[in-house]
Amino acid sequence: MYAFTYERPATQADALKLVQGGGQPLAGGQTLLGSMKLRLAAPEQLVDLGAIKELSGIRREAGDIVIGAMTRHADVAESAEVQAAIPALARLAGGIGDKQVRAMGTLGGSVVNNDPAADYPAALLALGATVHTTGRKIKADDFFLGLFSTALEPGELVTAISFPVPKRAAYVKFPQPASLFALIGVFVAQFDDAVRVAVTGAGNGVFRHPAMEAALGQNFSPDALAGVTTDEALASSDLHGSSAYRAHLVGMMAQRAVAQALS
């Protein structure tokens, strides 16, 4: 590690001033602290958001489930409100990492980090969520820009995320055994007027699958996806799996997600 200053503001306003002054927001620290140890990140000031009560919590608002950015994964997984309205989201949160990660990691931290194999981005994209920041509201379709990149501007903080409640939904992933990140994860959500399918783990970032959405819009069943393929160009190859393997897994995970949503 190296020298840096540490601030722990008690209000969102104080945190925003520090961040706009160049401070690095610290949510759960599951990625940032490891990156600092490896010298991949070198902030001069850390702004710990953990003491800001207004950034945590889960509530129902105008038909949506609204979750504060600093809400821990474990709290999302155990929330009776989330379990009743969007059980797929609760199950997703309960499958992130291990108990230690779920006890510290936050919804906002995961979304802003936008790891290409993270689980939450698939939920936001498939559910058509809205990211609330200190200055605006950003649709999930416009928020994720690729590998570790989002539409968030410097000095801007995510405060909450609102999730529309679907008719039915499910998330299924093929986890990488060591990290439990998604080698491939597919989130399927059916609404009254549309079906949305989001894929994580395949390549440089989360993306929607229009062909699957069209097929499921006509017939919401696993069989509807039997002839739908995924372009290998959308998937990456590494020591965990080839692009062809990942593309194949997309179809398998999608069919399982639809079956789970119908069960």
UniProtKB/TrEMBL annotation:
Cross-referenced Pfam families: FAD_binding_5 (PF00941)
Domain FAD-binding PCMH-type: 1-168
Family annotation (InterPro entries): CO_DH_flav_C (IPR005107), CO_DH_flav_C_dom_sf (IPR036683), Diverse_Substr_Oxidored (IPR051312), FAD-bd_PCMH (IPR016166), FAD-bd_PCMH-like_sf (IPR036318), FAD-bd_PCMH_sub1 (IPR016167), FAD-bd_PCMH_sub2 (IPR016169), Mopterin_DH_FAD-bd (IPR002346)
Membrane-spanning residues: none
Keyword Zinc: no
Keyword tags: FAD, Flavoprotein, Oxidoreductase
Keyword Chloroplast part of the UniProt annotation: no
One Gene Ontology molecular-function label: oxidoreductase activity
Protein name, as recorded: Carbon monoxide dehydrogenase
